[in-house]
Predict the 3D structure of the following.
Amino acid sequence: MTLTSSYSAVSAPRIAHHRTFAMTPPTHFTVTYAINPWMDPTVPVDTARALAQWEQLCRVYRDLGHTVRLVDPQPGLPDMVYAANGGLVVNGRAIAARFTFPERAVEAGHYADWFTAAGLGEVYRTAGTQEGEGDFLVVGERILAGTGFRTDPATHAEVAAITGLPVITLELCDPRFYHLDTALGVLDQNTITYYPPAFSEPSRRLLAQLYPDAIIATAADAEVLGLNLVSDGRNVVMTDAAPGLAARLREAGFETIGVDLSELLAGGGGIKCCTLELRPSDPDRPVPHRTEEMMPDLAEPHVAHNYSPLPVTAASAEGAWITDVDGRRYLDCLGAYSAVNFGHRNPEIVAAARAQLDRVTLTSRAFRSDRLEPFCAALAELCGKEMVLPMNTGAEAVESALKVARKWGYDVKGVPDGRAEIIVAGGNFHGRTITIVGFSDDDDARGGFGPFTPGFVRVPYGDAAAVADAITDDTVAVLVEPIQGEAGIIVPPDDYLPAVRTLCTDNRVLMIADEIQSGLGRTGTTFACEHWGVVPDVYTLGKALGGGILPVSAVVADTEVLGVLHPGQHGSTFGGNPLAAAVGHTVVRMLADGTWQARAASLGTRLHTRLADLVGPDVLQVRGKGLWAGIDIDPALGTGKQICLALADAGVLAKDTHGSTLRLAPPLVITPDEIDWMVDRFAAVLRGRH
């Protein structure tokens, strides 16, 4: 399988195909709220003019021989005119939308009812948010799917499962182009037109690979929603305000029909937004079975749906293997996001926990325990620091480090009260508390949780010059992951961390290294920073520090930094509890002689050597260090979730992130033979996707 389309833009005559569209009259159209950058409630809307323009669009479709079926508009739902957002209909299967904003949420039920009344059969509902054809555009035998502003990328896997088509994730980065259909138009089964600056750099590269003959739009085309068009394969119905794009389409053999839909542009919509295509059933395409992935609420009805797990229910585990409730064994290549570095139920760690369970488990910090100081002393020595602040989860460690950095800035550096700033990296993942998601650029993590904590400046990851430009007299810290885990195991340029270290030293700024996933042996060294000879001022640790048994985290720094905390200023009931200290101390002792680190380095070489052999049409790139790998899969083979489901069927557990990227983080107890077995299964899964 090759990544690109084999179709040339001038290799065949343009042929029109009959289409059936659902459309909703703008009877109640107005702009009373703003949920996209095009909407301004202070500017009056001429509803009668909007209706006249919409009726002209309907006439154009009918004059071309297409069928238009009308959906009844509903009072109080002015955006219902944008029917494309109401759902997705592919191969006769209708998927009703699940809107992001409450202002439009009620529309989903009306469109679902209309799909049923229209004879489209069973109507599917996704667990995740998605706004229909606004973010799902069908191009031949694949679906291009947008994310970044409205549609949850996890929903892409749901849509793939329902439709039986591969879904390719594309990330939008310009809020003016908040839906995929505002930045990309489908011209026929092989040809698209799009505006590259609307997409993230990885998505631009992907589109260039998939559609080398695409017609590239200019800013002038995009800024009038020229790409929000409808094509039947020959005739392209589009705004009359994009003559440049129209000319390029005609040069490529298409016929263009300009329509004035300027009044509806006040709501942020154009030609395509008003047009939902109803694609008939293909009798040769099998109907997919409903799965737990499609109905996650039925798998665990009493569990909040903040995760979309693979349909594997663990019953027991040992070493690198998990056994499910049916007795099937799986090689765990996720390791609970590095929390199980030392294997499931590591005998040494389990023995320490059992011994402590027989003594005392919790006193709170209202009293001392005989386990806390030895643990903190050993961890400080491992880190080459003087003091430890014990906490529970990784997010709690990061929050604690942020508080400490601000306090240090005021008490030690002398930053005026209330002005402390902390620089963070784009693509970061440090947890999901309100403060942390506030400086994330992941819209799924941020959406619906504001207002957020001020005082953070985000710059691109891997760009030391951007850090330098962002530093001011009020900067107290730079928070960075030495290797970004959730982003897809992103390894920075070799000069990045050393440059950040120098900038922090020269400007009297704390360098905080989030080693929660990357630390404690995962990458072949105790800390990932060691690969670049960098020692931060502050470490945040977690996950593996609890030995895969219970949450243990810590902030580790010198006394000058952690000494700014005084009684009553910070605390945690469970932080540093005797059971956690006993487990954490055991983990530190296990790491003290470097055996585990050396094992991860050696096995990591084997893992990356085997994975490198797979790079080609199916595997686009492999990144990582030690027993940590990010693998970019050809999206034409399916989403990352689909690949993970296939791997699970083959007995391998992995986790996807960001579309078609897989992460591997097997326990450090994995053997060379198990690595080979896993890579062989992975290769077989890729072959089976063709």
Summary: The chain has three domains: 20-278, 314-338+596-688, 347-592. The radius of gyration is 27 Å.
